[in-house]
């Protein structure tokens, strides 16, 4: 059986701004940090924010999805709509909200009814594209 990824790395131009965004808005805890990289905990997945070393390698559009418990979804929506222009979609009985981070990455928070974890607790999808 497949589980979630062990890590998801995002290339970020401004490491301090990106780290602060994920700490402040998604309550993610910094596990490790250097001058060029910050690793944050998303349940059992590491979200690695990495400054480009020479030529940026990222795509023009990055989307990834993280889980929140179904019982917390409305609270997350209310909290984030104060600062972001949220878009919401429904997939069967599950809802997801979408917004952008400081680097223009599309962040999805999808509700999950089969978890006992609190807060942002895992990564379940990621994609890079050209637009």
Question: Describe it for me?
Answer:
There is one protein chain. This protein is an alpha+beta fold. It has a single domain (7-129), classed as Roll (2,3-Dihydroxybiphenyl 1,2-Dioxygenase, domain 1). It has helices spanning 15-26, 73-81; strands spanning 7-11, 29-33, 37-42, 45-50, 61-69, 87-91, 94-100, 106-112, 122-129. The strands form two sheets. It has a five-stranded mixed β-sheet with strand order 6-7-8-5-9, with helices on one face. Strands 1-4-3-2 form a four-stranded mixed β-sheet, with helices on one face. Strand 7 and strand 8 (106-112) form a beta hairpin.
Can you give me a brief rundown of this structure?
This protein has 131 residues and is α+β, with helices and mostly antiparallel strands. It is 16% helix and 44% strand. It has one domain (7-129): 2,3-Dihydroxybiphenyl 1,2-Dioxygenase, domain 1, CATH 3.10.180.
């Amino acid at each position: 059986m497949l589980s979630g990824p062990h890590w998801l790395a995002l290339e970020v131009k401004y490491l301090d701004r990106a780290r602060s965004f994920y700490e402040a808005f998604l309550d993610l805890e910094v596990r490790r940090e250097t001058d060029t990289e910050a690793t944050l905990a998303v349940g059992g997945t590491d979200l690695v924010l990495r400054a480009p070393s020479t030529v940026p390698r990222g795509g023009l559009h990055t989307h990834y999805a993280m889980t929140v418990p179904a019982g917390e979804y409305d609270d997350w929506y209310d909290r984030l709509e104060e600062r972001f222009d949220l878009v919401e979609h429904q997939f069967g009985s599950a809802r997801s909200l979408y917004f952008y981070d400081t680097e223009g990455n599309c962040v999805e928070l999808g509700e999950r009814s089969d978890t006992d974890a609190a807060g942002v607790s895992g990564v379940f999808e990621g994609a890079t594209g050209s637009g």
